[in-house]
Model the fold of this input.
Amino acid sequence: MVLAGGRAATARPAAGGEGPWAVELFTSQGCSSCPPADAYLGSLARRPDIVALSFHVDYWDYIGWKDPFATRATTDRQRAYARVLKQRYVYTPEMVVDGIGHDTGRERTAIERLLVEAQRRSPRRATPELSRTAGGALAVQLAPFELANGPADVTLAIYDRRQSTPVASGENQGRTIDNFNVVRRLERLGRWNGAAASWTIDDVRLQPGIGAAVIVQRADHGPVIGCNKLEPMVSG
Done:
């Protein structure tokens, strides 16, 4: 659900079987193969049943262009997925769907198949409720949920809805790269045991162009069991 103007709004869990489901793109502005996947993530980001996030990795910075959005934390997240998903190496572009599988994101059919599989595996979702408090802070709530396979991690991502960057060197020299839902802040809110839980993040002030997402997944980068997003929009 969107956040309109200065009014408080809430992103509530959808009805059973309606998601959302998570798509995480690992990308780099220094990678000539990435722009098609970046564009596809932009279309996924418009879907209410998808939490689409773009994580910029830093291991291509050495080949001629330093990605301004790349961080070690986002690279570490991709490497953690690679270990869990038993990949031989990390690569870009890579879309990880709901923590259960991965593909390049350059062919939409493969990602849609993974989304169908995610829906099959996780029909009941531990979807967090996201809202803005009267003071403007971000509030996150989780209802009680039976965790049959151990605890879950609750992770917050704050992202820029869109960034356009003229690339002056490297493989994409001369191009203007459009990136969507670019994660600028990533932190684990806590480890969750399935009991009712809530967090208030006082230093998050959502505004047009900025979004917040929360991902709930089996501990240590396992399958996603719930996620949600809250995005401001200009009223009027």
Summary: Residues 102 and 127 are 22 Å apart (CA to CA).
